[in-house]
Amino acid sequence: MQSHNKYRQFSLQAVILVMALSLLPVAISAQSYKLNNSEGELMVTGTSTLHDWEEVAEQKSGSITLDNSGELPKINSLKFTVEAESLKSGKGAMDKNTYKALNTDDHKQIVFEMKQVKSISPVVSTANKYKVVATGSLTISGTTKTIDLPFTLTLNDGKVMLEGKKPLKMTDYNIEPPKALLGTITTGDEIEIHYNTVWK
């Protein structure tokens, strides 16, 4: 009876070991990278009745998990966060209007979180560079929408680089385009987000 119990215990340990070893290649091949805030840039551009404008995000964070063991890299997860009040134009009055429009008192962050990769393909004649379209949720000022985010993914010397641009409409996120000088200057509804980010 005692030897039978020992045999059962050994068999259970063997099964657990086999299961752990089968999961090991997945754990080894998937690597996680963190966004490096000090490198790269995220910029929002737009128009107004007076002049074009741009704002740069000074505080951004995020993580991406990649499995690069196959013919094409597999993006397991991607999350990107911008602190709303870190958007700076170099003009205090404009920044103040931006934060008011974004309601930053209640909504501190702008967040994109990937749900799935819609497409990925290698860039012709360029090694370790891929065209990607990722579908995910983008939350701005408390409103969340599902969007397709296009970018170029480059793998280089332990770094991941994501570069692209995405047009949006403020009113899609229930944001009233900011106005200035008693409404005589009006901001255009359409904006464009430009991103050139480095992940380590």
From TrEMBL:
It comes from Flagellimonas iocasae. PANTHER family: PROTEIN YCEI. It comes from the Bacteria. Residues 32-200 form the Lipid/polyisoprenoid-binding YceI-like domain. This is YceI family protein. SMART domains: YceI (SM00867). Coiled coil: none annotated.
